Amino acid sequence: MTSRISRSYCQNMRFSPLLRNAPISITTSVVFLWSCRDATGLGPPGVRGRWYQPQSGWARARPAVVGNIVYFGDGYGEVIARDVADGERKWTARIGQERIDGANILVRSGVVVAPLETYTVGLDAASGRELWRYRAPADTVGVPTGYVALPGQVIESRIDADDNTVYIPAWGASVSAVDLRTGQVRWVWQPGRIDGDTATSGVFASGSNGVVVSGDTIFATLWHFVNRLGGFSQAWLVAIDRVSGRELWRVRLPYEGSGTLIWAAPVVYHNLVIVHTLSARTYGIDRETQKVVWEFTVDSAHLSTIAGAELYGDVLYVDGGDSQIHGLRPSDGTTISIAAFPAASTRDLLVTEKRIYVPIGAEVYILDRQTGATVAIAHQPGSYDPLFSSAAAFSNGLVFFTVADGAWCFEEP
User: Fold this and answer.
1) Residue 272: is its pLDDT beyond 70?
2) How far is residue 303's CA from residue 365's CA, in Å, rounded to a whole number?
3) Pick from 413, 412, 407: which is nearest to 105 by CA?
4) Four-residue CA torsion sign, 76, 79, 83, 89
5) What is the DSSP string of 279-340?
6) Which of the four pLDDT bands, split at 50, 70 and 90, describes residue 24?
7) What's the CA gap between 357 and 334, in Å, rounded?
8) Which residues, in sequence order, are bridge partners of residue 234?
């Protein structure tokens, strides 16, 4: 029987040759670990479980914590508000049949925003009442004559918001600015025909999977096929005016790869916008000159890097594609620290004052942020078919994960 981890990898690997190699090392490293452990305890040695609550299926969306409530998604279209203390449900909103499959749930100005697969929903944070739902512009590339194009998908989309507007990247490609309270569309940005597109009719496939708000600017990452099947593709960084949706500039990253080449949201550090690609390359781009001022890559990189860059203070953490987390100086990309772990991260990292959390499918490596040593390895309780399907959320010493058929909270070790 195919495990959840294998099924989720198959979905993630359909475009990238690098990714097809990743499960080999990941699977061999975790099979023993999950096959011999006790599946009934609240928490394995290394982490102290605070609570574990069942829910249906698995979802990619990172939970969101606000005050004493943590918001989870499940595999069958439910958003669940849980008490931080014990995980009990405060409310449940059934918003469709699709998995809550954006990369993150977001809570801002009393609204919970949850991307599913083909649409995004806004909910009242106190009651779970649906306020709006939004479908991104249709992704028309490759749709046969006579078929209806579907909305641009928001699987793995990393959304962001200010106090009034949520910004939603989607395949197609597009970035939409949507009013948080009403769902009214303020503007939609689309790239048009991209330089390097040699399609004789229409355009080749493209998509945006990550945005970040920085002052009066929205920065978005964009991938774009340069042939029909995506054997060659480019990655771009785009700057968009936050109020009007007008494109300010775009920069093509200097590496050409394959498939959906960039998933992660940009990271802003002073005057630099930093992006990390699936090909394990990290770039620092000057937002004033639009020049790539530094690049980081490891010669021994051989795994695709789904996790985006994570900034904590004055250190930028990236998965180097070489089974190591690299701490970089964000101003110039210089290596400060290195921490080893097996394989490649399968979701975004979580970095706290003390720890780095690295999900690798069926388990989570917890690294000391100062020394790089492995402090603990967390295994999902209550399952012989485990999966850490989301990135982690953190609040007041507690770590929250969406896992296979459950929501789990444990104490930071």
Assistant:
1) yes
2) 17
3) 407
4) negative
5) TS-EEEEETTT--EEEEE--TT--S---SPPEEETTEEEEE-SSSEEEEEETTTTEEEEEEE
6) very low
7) 22
8) 224
pTM value is 0.89
Q: Is residue 23 classed as helix, strand or coil in its secondary structure?
A: helix
**Rounded to the nearest 5°, which phi and psi values hold at 24?**
-60, -55
pLDDT, position 36: 34
Local structure of 173: helix, strand or coil: coil
How many Å apart are CA 394 and CA 203, to the nearest integer? 41
- The domain segmentation of the chain, as residue ranges, is 4-411
Bond preceding residue 309 cis, omega within 30 of 0: no
Report how far residue 358's alpha carbon sits from residue 38's, in angstroms, rounded to the nearest whole number: 22
Q: Which fold has domain 4-411?
A: Methylamine Dehydrogenase; Chain H (2.130.10)
Number of H helices and E strands in the chain, helices first, is 2, 32
**Exposed e or buried b for every residue in 191-223, given b needs 16+ CB within 10 A?**
beebeebeeeeebbbbbbbbbbbeeebbbbbbb
* pLDDT reading at 38 higher than 80: no
Give Cα separations from 239 to 167, 186, 213, 222, 257 (angstroms). Answer: 13, 17, 10, 11, 22
Q: Look at the block and give the residue holding tokens 């048009």.
A: 192
CA–CA gap between residue 66 and residue 113 (Å, rounded): 13
Bridge-based pairing of strands 315-319 and 324-329 is antiparallel
Distance CA 294, CA 249 (A): 19
Rounded distance between C-alpha atoms, residue 384 and residue 387, angstroms: 10
